[in-house]
C-alpha cells in the first residue's frame, strides 16, 4: 500500500499538487491528466527524487526514515529521461544494476528482450529518443522493486517495443507481485493491462476515478 498524507509540492510558491490523504493498494494503476497537470511531479516525489511537504510510505517503509530500503523497493522511469551524453547505456545500466543489487542474469535478459544490447556500448549522446527511452524503462525493472512507476512509458518507442513493455509489466506484476503506477495524458493507452484503479491528476490534486 502506498500512503500519501498531507502531501504538497510547490514550485516558486505555486502549488502544483496537493493531496490530503491517498491510499493506493497493490496492483497496476493508471494516472491520467493533461499536460502540465502534475503527474511527473507526483511520480518524482514518490520516487524520492525531488523534495516535498508531507508524508509518503510504501508498504510501511517511510520515504525519509527508511530512505535506502524505500529506494530499493521503489523504482521509476522518467517521461523524458536525461543522462550525461558521454556515458554509454552499458555504463549507466551496470551502475544502476549494482546499486539496486540486480542479478547479472536479470540485466542480460532485459537488455536482450528490449534489444538494448545491440547499441548499449555506444555513447548516450548518439541515441534516438526511443533508444534512450528503452534504457530508462529497462533501468526501472532492475533489482527487486515492489513498486515501479513508469511515467509516459509508451511515448517515443515503436509498436514492437510497446508490446514488449506490456509483456514486461504483466510478467513482473503476475509472477513477482510488483505494483505499477503508469501515467499517460492520453486515453486508452493501457487497455491490455489489468488496471485496478484509475486516478485523475487535475486542479492541483489527485482523485480516484
Ligand atoms: N523544476 C520545475 N520548476 C518549476 N516548475 C516546474 C518544475 N517541474 C515542473 N514544473 C511545473 O509543474 C507543473 C506540472 O508539471 P509536470 O511535469 O508534473 O506535469 P505532467 O502532468 O507530468 O505533464 P506532461 O503530461 O506534459 O508530462 C507544470 O506547470 C510545470 O511547469
Automatic annotation (TrEMBL):
Pfam families: ABC_tran
Keyword Secreted among UniProt keywords: no
Assigned keywords, A-Z: ATP-binding, Nucleotide-binding, Transport
Domain ABC transporter: residue ranges: 2-209
Gene3D superfamilies noted in UniProt: P-loop containing nucleotide triphosphate hydrolases
GO molecular function: ATP binding; ATP hydrolysis activity
Name of the protein this chain belongs to: ABC transporter domain-containing protein
Amino acid at each position: 500500500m502506498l500512503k500519501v498524507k498531507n502531501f504538497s509540492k510547490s514550485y516558486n510558491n505555486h502549488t502544483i499538487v496537493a493531496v490530503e490523504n491517498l491510499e493506493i493498494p497493490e496492483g497496476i494503476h493508471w494516472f491520467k491528466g493533461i499536460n502540465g497537470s502534475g503527474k511527473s511531479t507526483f511520480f518524482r516525489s514518490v520516487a524520492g527524487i525531488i523534495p516535498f511537504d508531507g508524508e509518503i510510505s510504501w508498504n510501511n517503509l517511510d520515504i525519509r526514515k527508511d530512505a535506502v530500503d524505500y529506494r530499493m523497493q521503489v523504482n521509476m522511469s522518467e517521461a523524458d529521461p536525461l543522462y550525461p551524453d558521454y556515458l554509454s547505456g552499458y555504463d549507466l545500466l551496470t551502475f544502476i544494476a549494482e546499486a539496486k543489487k540486480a542479478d547479472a542474469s536479470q540485466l542480460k535478459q532485459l537488455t536482450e528482450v528490449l534489444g538494448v544490447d545491440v547499441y548499449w556500448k555506444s555513447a548516450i549522446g548518439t541515441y534516438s529518443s526511443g533508444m534512450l527511452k528503452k534504457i530508462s524503462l529497462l533501468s526501472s525493472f532492475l533489482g527487486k522493486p515492489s513498486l515501479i512507476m513508469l511515467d509516459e512509458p509508451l511515448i517515443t518507442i515503436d509498436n514492437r517495443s510497446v508490446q514488449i513493455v506490456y509483456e514486461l509489466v504483466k510478467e513482473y506484476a503476475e509472477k513477482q507481485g510488483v505494483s505499477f503506477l503508469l501515467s499517460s495524458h492520453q486515453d486508452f493507452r493501457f487497455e491490455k493491462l489489468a488496471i485496478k484503479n484509475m486516478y485523475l491528476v487535475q486542479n492541483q490534486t489527485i482523485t480516484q476515478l
